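Hi,

Apologies if this is the wrong queue. I'm a grad student, and the batch job for MFS transporter from Nocardioides jiangsuensis produced an output file that my downstream script rejects. I'm not sure whether the problem is my script or the file. Here is the sequence I used:
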Amino acid sequence: MTIDNPTGPVGIADLSPLSRRKEQRAWYWYDWANSAYVTTTAAVLFSPYLTSVAEVAACGEAGTPENPCTTHLSVLGLGISPGSLVFYIVTVATILSALVLPVVGAAADRSARKKNMMGGFAWAGSLSAGLMFFVAGSNWQLGAVLLLVATLCLGASLVVYDAILCEIATPDERDRVSSRGWALGYLGGGLLLALNFGLLTVMADDTGLAVRICLLSAGLWWAAFTLIPFLGVRNREPRNVVPEPGSLVRQSFGQLWQTLRDLRSYPVTLTFLVAYLFYNDGIQTVIFASSVYGEKQLGFEKATVLQAFLVVQFVGILGALLFGKVAERVGSRKVILGGLLVWMLVVVAAYFTPERTFVLFLVLAVGIGLVLGGTQALSRSFFSLLIPRGREAEYFSLYQACERGTSWLGTLVFGLVHQVTDSYRPAIFALILFFVVGFLLLARVDPERGIREAGNTPPVVV
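Support response: The file is valid. Your script probably expects a header line. Output copied below for reference.
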């Protein structure tokens, strides 16, 4: 007798839960692997570092809160504020993601080698992350290209990684599995960040070189630990694939078009995607902008900002596990809504935080850590229930287009408001709009209806 995936074949004694647990434990480690890059590079060090490199190129020296760099870079004939550069790069990366990631997802749904695809994108991204070591002086162009490539590869690898969740966990297991993956990711990212904090402290006389070594360490960490899920998760044959003629590339574009056309048949799924686009844009922009805001607006040293991010990482472990436990009792959608209310409070508090007030900065870090992992982990598991079977990777490609620093509305608004006002305070406050819109849209989502429309079985608690 057999039972449909993910439970696998069953004999007289059902050993499939043990098999799933083994794969789930291996799967967790990709959160651990890529979180080193997300935390050390994307969230903490590279944004202010590349901003300083761009300021050197534009003004001859890095700016400070008392003496900001106001000379613009010339990019394709446009005047770009050095302080807005990284946000525009992420915006471009996300626009490209909107074109590339859905095709990656469609191809993954048709592939029997998902873990190979995940590993390939992960190792290409980790190579780009490691090469950031060579960004120095005024060479912001190399940094811009590497950030663009690493962001695209991270998004592509996560499309496949998230789709694998649907293969290795039943609906009732997904909140737990997703939350534990996020928690392990925060632990891994936090450990490397702590090591890098020690390096920055020891090499205080040469901060530039220390930052570059930290960037290299994140790339190596990402590459090395990707081996665990690559070896521990097994490939599976694709399921319920929509028939399309031609090569894999042509089939992928054909399936993408079919999915976009059929998305109207899943109104609850569509509503959640739009809600997620808004509130996750806010989350990702807060994460991406926090280090720049701490250094350039509040006047903290790199080491101080790093300490705050360590607080975020380790509080995030507790937050992810706590949110997962609460979701088992009341349902993931309600918990996400509660988390969004806390995000709104964080944005308002950040706007009013005085310069060089470390205690308040740490309070903000605790607030972010508490809701960050929980809202993201539960969003991933909740969305997995709203996806029609056989199209997991493709739907997760749409999800990933606004995930983990690949948002574009938030970074674009943040960059534009900063360019107009020459201040990060109104830029950070403007992000509250994304949380409000996301909250209102998510409140309209009917979980049970959406799960049944997608042809899936609702968990015990919705």
